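In the previous lecture we treated proteins in isolation. Real proteins rarely work alone, and many bind small molecules. This record shows how such a complex is specified: first the sequence, then the SMILES for pyridoxal-5'-phosphate.
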Amino acid sequence: MTERKAQLAGNLAKVEERITAACVAAGRKREEVTLIVVTKTYPAGDVRILSELGVRNVAENRDQDAAPKAAACSDLPLSWHFVGQLQTNKVRSVVGYADVVQSVDRARLVTVLSKEAVRVEREVGCLIQVALDAQESGRGERGGVGVGGIEELADLIAGAPGLRLDGLMTVAPLTGAYAGRQQAAFERLMDLSTAMRRTHPAANMVSAGMSADLEQAVAAGATHVRVGTAVLGVRPGLG
Ligand SMILES: *Cc1c(COP(=O)(O)O)cnc(C)c1O
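The predicted 3D structure, ligand included, written as tokens:
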């Protein structure tokens, strides 16, 4: 085993332990929570190692980095999640590799995603990114739609050819009423998910929690946690 593989295996084992402990504490089954490893800024070689170590879901936030990485790893049994702010001029590229886009936050993006998914005959899973620090009808600074915009977007995605409404995603807010209150934020997301599932019962994915707050996400009922630094190490610079 290479040094890097041993390091990633050790980190993965620790994250696995944390998820398991959080599930036990919450009275949930371990299978209810899926680990998505956020590989942004790290090379395709790391993605390959993670695949060898049993990881099946990876996430990226920038198309420029993600597209070549996904191409280099196209032989691996991985699901790719796109979790960054998505400009419509990047949609064609992203639909080429993403199984799930977790950052759907506006009607225009739904229209373009749908058109492209139909064109290449793919079905793309969509999560609505909720900005809990945005005004009810506004948008978040780091992407995401305000709570008041969820229903309309959900109906739009559910009716869009080539798209599948899978659920909701959030990033714990740094500002506003939920700043520093990750578990309360994730519980709010769960309530919003429950409300949405009354009209869209299959959209049961709840993506919340990162390296620093995965326990709070599991406690609140998240089905997917997105973990980067705790597996791969601290990212140099932005990302
Ligand atoms: C980078 C990123 C993560 C992972 O964050 P870590 O703190 O490295 O675990 C999760 N979700 C999104 C949307 C991200 O951009």
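Summary for your notes: The longest helix spans residues 3-26. The CA atoms of residues 133 and 176 lie 5 Å apart.
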